[in-house]
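Regression test case RT-17, inverse folding.

Input:
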């Protein structure tokens, strides 16, 4: 697999986006939030992510160091992506791979990340 174009969004469809991502590089995280949600995520530079619909539908949730804006649909509650800042200060988007259209998540091999310790 290499970088490919995907579309995705929340459950009810109010939040929709397109993204270019390499799903050979996915992560599962054991932090207090990701562990409960069962996220499989991949980080992409913000330029490779376009929110097509739903900016006004998003509710922002912050915890721990407030480094990542966890954005969930205020109608259906699904967090299909999050916005954050990389170590070098660049804008990043964490995409919930489970929210991408037509992706076989069972075929992915997410790398475990020890977010609990961060
Ligand atoms: Zn929704």
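Golden output:
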């Amino acid at each position: 697999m290499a970088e490919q174009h995907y579309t995705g969004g929340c459950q009810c469809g109010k939040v929709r986006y397109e993204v270019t991502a390499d799903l050979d590089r996915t992560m599962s995280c054991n932090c207090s939030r990701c562990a409960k949600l069962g996220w499989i995520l991949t980080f992409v530079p913000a330029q490779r992510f376009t929110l097509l619909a739903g900016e006004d539908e998003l509710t922002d949730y912050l915890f721990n160091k407030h480094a990542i804006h966890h954005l969930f649909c205020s109608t259906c509650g699904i967090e299909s992506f999050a916005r954050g800042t990389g170590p070098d200060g660049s804008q990043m988007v964490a995409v919930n791979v489970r929210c991408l259209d037509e992706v076989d998540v069972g075929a992915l091999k997410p790398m475990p990340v020890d977010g609990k310790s961060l």
